Amino acid sequence: xxxxxxxxxxxxxxxxxxxxxxxxxxxxxxxxxxxxxxxxxxxxxxxxxxxxxxxxxxxxxxxxxxxxxxxxxxxxxxxxxxxxxxxxxxxxxxxxxxxxxxxxxxxxxxxxxxxxxxxxxxxxxxxxxxxxxxxxxxxxxxxxxxxxxxxxxxxxxxxxxxxxxxxxxxxxxxxxxxxxxxxxxxxxxxxxxxxxxxxxxxxxxxxxxxxxxxxxxxxxxxxxxxxxxxxxxxxxxxxxxxxxxxxxxxxxxxxxxxxxxxxxxxxxxxxxxxxxxxxxxxxxxxxxxxxxxxxxxxxxxxxxxxxxxxxxxxxxxxxxxxxxxxxxxxxxxxxxxxxxxxxxxxxxxxxxxxxxxxxxxxxxxxxxxxxxxxxxxxxxxxxxxxxxxxxxxxxxxxxxxxxxxxxxxxxxxxxxxxxxxxxxxxxxxx
Length: 430
Fold this sequence. Notes:
A hairpin with a 5-residue loop joins strand 18 and strand 19 (392-393). The chain is built from eleven helices and 21 strands.
């Protein structure tokens, strides 16, 4: 049986490796301003991206290249060179957004699988059919689509792969077709430089041009003024319905500009949800425990499993971002021997260990520290904080570049975390 693909964001080489290590089957990312996430494109050099593709292929994984910006005429010659250069790296597909770029990729990179970006706003059989006839092998459907419409497309076009977003930021506008950022700051969303103006708090005013009167409208207490701020998508608890449909080929996580911890945690949570589905068991609490640890704007299940007019929980009106349940306190290096501090840490602070599925951590109690299991979770405490240079530190803070010795080896890129409301340094005991 062909299993659904888990597709994660790769905003850098490190995040690419982390996503794969924590369960992703494929990742997507880009180099240069032809990607819709310029910030993440700057994190990748051509050399890094080539290394990432090789890393993926050595593990039987895939990398999809984002060339999904909307180019100006003045950029077309550069775009052609970019398409050729990216094809030479031997990725597994290109993600493109416009008919013209789709045609250009066919001409310059014949044989390259082409995935149509969600920016193309495919919502129905007619549009899907046109793009399929133009050579798209997969369509990343609009975030506003329903499972019912996905079934209709698949029934008509059984050979066309369908990809859906299951987690991450949602756009206030229709599938990202927004110009608010362009109007307010000159940053063009569909060319990769959205300033996220929809996340701002706004004040509402009423004006009378005849009298020159201007007064501020008072909002109802508790309603808030984040009037365009969409909640984040979270469909981990709906994997049963999504996969029971039999029409989804790939489930996608948004977030190339988000943290390495986000890349790890989302990949792990959705890997668990997918594997549990095929094993005939569902444990939503387990997936949500991981996802709730992330910073978020509140979560919604949006439109895939419900009709739009039934949705009344898609906006966060009184805040832009909230802390998750946990704070990342450290990340293990690639060798698994030391970690870098991400949050103030003192000796005897208890840190939960977050490592890739299928990995093991040795239970130890030695002069450096201890590892132990409690209620199905792993924890670590350091008896002293010893830097790689041998210096003993009374405490360590985020931003300190000293690598700290571990009591035992851990899988590469293992994370340590603590409850967000905890006061590190209180030395909780196990």
